[in-house]
Amino acid sequence: MKFIHYLEKISNVSIYGLSSFLIFFIFFCAVFIYVISAKKSDMNEQSRIPLD
């Protein structure tokens, strides 16, 4: 039996795809805002962590 047959038995299966996309999109936006708003000196300090 194929995987698609299992998905057809679940009611409102499209909600799972939409919710996972929203979680990914919100996380991506949050990281983007963090990177844009971060100070350059903080980023330089974090970039040197592996070398210390």
UniProtKB/TrEMBL annotation:
<keyword id="KW-1133">Transmembrane helix</keyword>
<protein>
    <recommendedName>
        <fullName>Cbb3-type cytochrome oxidase component FixQ</fullName>
    </recommendedName>
</protein>
<keyword id="KW-0472">Membrane</keyword>
<keyword id="KW-0812">Transmembrane</keyword>
<feature type="transmembrane region" description="Helical">
    <location>
        <begin position="15"/>
        <end position="36"/>
    </location>
</feature>
